[in-house]
């Protein structure tokens, strides 16, 4: 038996959903042949380590994402209106690509992906093809492809129920979502998306399978205390990931550190919201350390080194940063910042005995500083054991979720015999 994962890329700095798919592929490859189809990216080449997870890696080419990457950089965000118009005049194809991405959900790249799926499936005898979203065009390409095998998808981010979208765009996306679901045999959806999807798909109870977010890698779960020698003075906090202006803004986190003790240092591995970070770098000076973008392996090494891990949640209430589960798997102290009382992370943090949860306020609240100080005093250097972590999070391990997906693949493929 063999399956094909369809992914956005296999770069060192790939999206969280791709990393989760790789974790699942490692488990599934113990039982079956697992291949991948990925978009060739000139800017983000395939990582040899991630490529080796799969028995074979196929690629298709689309330069749309590469063009857009050059127009969504920090320099682009700071450019004047005239400068932007000038750049578009020099590259009209990029303007077309941007319109296609924003209003037509990468239709050009979707067509190329669909064609590649059909070509690969003609050469290889796959039992199932699994598209991993986001981006959503991958799910569409799998659903619309003309192939003779079971078509599945894994969706971990909301496509329609997203407050950042206009009502008109939401309505259009609902239509796409309904059409896509109708052409899939099975959709594995994050359990936090399931209720929403149930309201729009009539046969949801049959072909939409809720899955826990598989963020905990069973073999890597072990209590790992900090390896930095602080001489009992400095307390090093670490955020790993990307900030976004509207969805995951760091303002409240940075404001907290302006009021926390001077021996509390915030390290950021990743980036985003550079203007905000630049401003607070002037205020916090050496207490705000920006390490920039690094590989997944380097990011894991940073996580091993620091005292308290920081998770900043999204304003979208049906979306959960997978980084939270990576932090939980270490057993280390976690500072978890929520954008609202409805934050999806709160039930998980309630089960985690080595964390503190702060709900961001409209204006800064001094009591949050005292809460963090008390937490650090009691939990610094405290690390949960693997057994303690599994007590609350066994269903979120890669092993548990891979078994669920594997059982469904067997059920579907045997039904086709």
Could you write a compact summary of the structure shown?
The chain has 417 residues and is α/β, with parallel strands linked by helices.
How are the secondary structure elements laid out?
Layout: E1 2-7, H1 16-28, E2 33-40, H2 48-51, E3 56-61, H3 64-71, H4 74-78, H5 81-90, H6 92-104, H7 107-123, E4 128-133, H8 137-144, E5 150-155, H9 167-182, E6 186-190, H10 191-198, H11 204-207, E7 208-211, E8 235-242, H12 251-259, E9 264-271, H13 274-284, E10 288-292, H14 296-305, E11 308-312, H15 323-328, E12 334-338, H16 345-351, E13 355-359, H17 366-379, H18 386-393, H19 398-416
Parallel strand pairs: 1-2, 1-4, 2-3, 4-5, 5-6, 6-7, 8-9, 8-11, 9-10, 11-12, 12-13
Helix pairs in contact: 1-19, 3-6, 5-6, 7-8, 8-9, 12-13
Describe the structure.
The protein is of the alpha/beta class and 417 residues long. The protein is 46% helix and 18% strand. The strands form two sheets. Strands 3-2-1-4-5-6-7 form a seven-stranded parallel β-sheet, with helices on both faces. Strand 11, helix 15 (323-328) and strand 12 (334-338) form a beta-alpha-beta unit. Helix 3 (64-71) crosses helix 6 and helix 12 packs parallel to helix 13. The longest helix has 19 residues, at 398-416. The mean pLDDT is 81.
Arrangement of strands in the largest sheet: 3-2-1-4-5-6-7
Count of β-strands: 13
**Average residue-wise pLDDT:** 81
Provide the low-confidence segments as ranges.
none
Q: Given the helix and strand composition, which structural class is it?
A: alpha/beta
In helices, the fraction of residues equals: 40-55%
Report the sheet-strand fraction.
Answer: 15-25%
């Amino acid at each position: 038996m063999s399956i094909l994962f369809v992914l956005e890329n296999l770069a060192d700095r790939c999206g969280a959903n791709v990393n989760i798919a790789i974790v699942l592929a490692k488990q599934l490859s113990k039982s079956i042949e697992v291949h991948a189809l990925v978009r060739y990216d000139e800017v983000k080449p395939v990582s040899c380590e991630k490529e080796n997870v799969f028995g074979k890696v196929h690629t298709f080419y689309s330069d749309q994402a590469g063009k857009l990457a050059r127009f969504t950089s920090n320099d682009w965000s700071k450019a004047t209106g005239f400068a932007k118009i000038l750049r578009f005049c020099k590259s009209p194809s990029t303007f077309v690509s941007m319109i296609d991405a924003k209003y037509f959900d990468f239709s050009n790249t979707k067509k190329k992906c669909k064609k590649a799926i059909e070509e690969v499936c003609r050469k290889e005898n796959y039992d199932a093809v699994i598209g991993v979203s986001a981006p959503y065009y991958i799910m569409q390409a799998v659903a619309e492809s003309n192939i003779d095998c079971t078509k599945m998808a894994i969706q971990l981010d909301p496509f329609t129920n997203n407050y950042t979208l206009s009502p008109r765009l939401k309505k259009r996306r609902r239509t796409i979502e309904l059409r896509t679901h109708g052409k899939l045999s099975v959709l594995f959806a994050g359990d936090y998306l399931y209720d929403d999807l149930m309201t729009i798909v009539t046969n949801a109870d049959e072909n939409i399978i809720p899955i826990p977010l598989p963020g905990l890698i069973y073999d890597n779960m072990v209590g790992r205390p900090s390896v930095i020698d602080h001489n009992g003075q400095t307390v090093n906090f670490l955020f790993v990931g990307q900030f976004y202006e509207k969805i995951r803004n760091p303002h409240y986190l940075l404001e907290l550190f302006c009021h926390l003790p001077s021996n509390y240092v915030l390290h950021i591995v990743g980036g985003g919201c550079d203007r905000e970070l630049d401003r607070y770098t002037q205020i916090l000076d050496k207490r705000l350390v920006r390490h920039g973008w690094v590989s997944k392996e380097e990011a894991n090494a940073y996580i091993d080194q620091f005292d308290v891990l920081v998770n900043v949640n999204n304003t979208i209430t049906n979306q959960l940063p997978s980084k939270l589960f990576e932090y939980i798997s270490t057993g280390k102290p976690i500072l978890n910042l929520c954008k609202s009382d409805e934050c999806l992370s709160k039930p998980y943090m309630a089960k985690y005995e080595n964390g503190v949860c702060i709900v961001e306020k409209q204006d800064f609240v001094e009591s949050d500083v005292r809460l963090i100080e008390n937490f650090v005093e009691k939990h610094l250097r405290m690390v949960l054991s693997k057994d303690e972590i599994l007590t609350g999070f066994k269903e979120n391990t890669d092993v548990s979720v891979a078994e669920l997906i594997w059982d469904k693949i067997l059920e579907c493929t045997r039904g086709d015999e």
